[in-house]
Design a protein that fits this description.
3 domains, five-stranded mixed beta sheet, 62% helix, 12 helices
Length: 437
């Protein structure tokens, strides 16, 4: 513990020394925040047009304007004889250089706050205002220094701000001890107010970052939940397809011995075992389905296939779409799982077209060739006078569901914008040919 306290005690002066060195030479301020908005107290300027301009541009223009005005005023002040303090006459080039030196930091402080403070510090230290006017500081230079101190505290890390404060306090006491007390209060006030603003801005940025992270996490959670929900729905639908086949196996195994007069006992036993195995499998599938079913009841309607494609197209036309179809190949002989998946993909794609491109022209294609079923739904932009319907909150996972269904069969789905402002969904699904019996 003693060693640790010694290290802390020795590190404190080192930290102050590093802060002073950074303030004087090596330190850099934070970059200008991108996309700065207007502060709330100044948003009323939108009503007079100024508030519609970029805030950073206005700040720099005002800084340049103030610099020119204060430099001209300072030059005029130094050229005017002072009735209560007849100071030394100041040559015109000296007046001009001194006026620019003490006010130029105002034009630089937004882009280069630390550099502006350094220039202000040097200018105030070198300009002999007491011999010219009788006071230690030129009024414009004092104003510029206060603004630079505030900006440094807002835009620089704590160590640099402390270093700037130490150098500024040392400077005012060396410059003029009589006015150093009041100057110390002014320096500390500017730094404290600026650092308080920095803390507030930092807290807001951290809260905004945390809020964005929470939103991203919520989106990822919704996407994962949508995938699970879609998989459950797929499993429920495919259960009916597979259960039908298992039932047929059980029925055929039970009926087979009665179709032939003389069936060997061993064959009867095998058929009986096939039937029992099919029934056991059907029972296990019903148990699985009981887990997947939602509380609002089981879905008992027959699972659709491309045989009901005409219903989908008719519904889309009834919703205002102009739909053309291109069908090719043996679409009636698709395996049930492939037919169900194809139907759901086309259903989702047409629903998206109805929602996001009402009144548009839609081309629907379903082509089976070379063991591949190719699906396509391409819609144009919304029709004249038709307004797309925004997706409800928490939705927007339809394409993800289509891809889940296609990948289950070893296929794939692509979705992209078209050059004319429409949208295209294309899918390829492998079709396994049935063995001839």
């Amino acid at each position: 513990m003693a060693g640790q306290n010694t290290d802390d005690a020795s590190s404190a002066p080192n930290g102050l020394l590093r802060g002073v060195l950074a303030a004087a030479v090596t330190g850099q301020a934070d970059p200008v925040p991108p996309g700065r908005g207007w502060p709330a107290p100044l948003r009323w300027t939108r009503f007079i047009g100024i508030g519609r301009l970029p805030y950073g541009l206005v700040v720099n223009v005002v800084g340049i304007g103030l610099t020119i005005a204060l430099a001209a005023g300072t030059n005029s002040l130094l050229a005017t004889p002072q009735p209560f303090h007849p100071g030394l006459p100041v040559a015109e080039p000296v007046r001009l250089i001194a006026s620019i030196a003490v006010t130029l930091p105002l034009a630089l402080r937004d882009r280069h706050p630390l550099g502006a403070w350094r220039l202000s510090f040097v200018a105030i230290a070198l300009v002999p205002a007491d011999r010219w006017l009788g006071g230690p500081y030129l009024p414009a230079g004092l104003f510029a220094a206060i603004v630079c101190l505030y900006t440094v505290a807002v835009r620089c890390p704590r160590d640099i701000t402390i270093g700037v404060g130490l150098l500024s306090l040392a400077g005012v006491w060396i410059k003029d001890a009589e006015s150093a007390g009041g100057a110390t209060v002014v320096v500390l006030l500017a730094l404290v107010v600026g650092y308080a603003v920095r803390l507030r801005n930092t807290s807001r940025m951290q809260l905004a970052a945390q809020r964005r992270e929470l939103i991203e996490q919520e989106k990822r959670h919704q996407a994962a939940e949508a995938v699970l929900t879609e998989r459950q729905r797929i499993a429920r639908e495919l259960h009916d397809v597979v259960a039908h086949h298992m039932s047929m196996i059980a029925i055929q195994a039970e009926a087979a011995p009665y179709k032939v007069e003389a069936v060997p006992d061993e064959t009867r036993k095998d058929l009986s075992e096939i039937r029992a195995t099919a029934l056991d499998a059907l029972t296990e599938m019903r148990r699985i389905l009981g887990v997947l079913r939602s509380e609002d009841g089981a879905e008992t309607a027959p699972q659709p296939s491309l045989e009901r494609l005409d219903e989908l197209v008719a519904h889309a036309r009834g919703a205002g779409l102009t739909v053309s179809t291109r069908l090719s190949g043996d679409l009636d002989g698709l395996p049930p799982g492939v037919g169900l998946t194809a139907y759901r993909i086309l259903q989702e794609a047409l629903s998206n077209a109805m929602r996001h491109a009402p009144g548009s022209r839609v081309a629907v294609a379903a082509v089976r060739e070379d063991g591949i079923l190719r699906l396509g739904v391409v819609n144009g932009p919304p029709g004249d006078g038709d307004v797309p319907v925004p997706s409800p909150e928490g939705t927007g996972h339809g394409i993800m569901g289509m891809r889940e269904r296609a990948s289950m069969l070893g296929g794939e789905v692509s979705a992209r914008d078209t050059p004319d402002g429409g949208f295209a969904v294309n899918a390829t699904l492998p079709v396994k040919a049935r063995d001839a019996t």
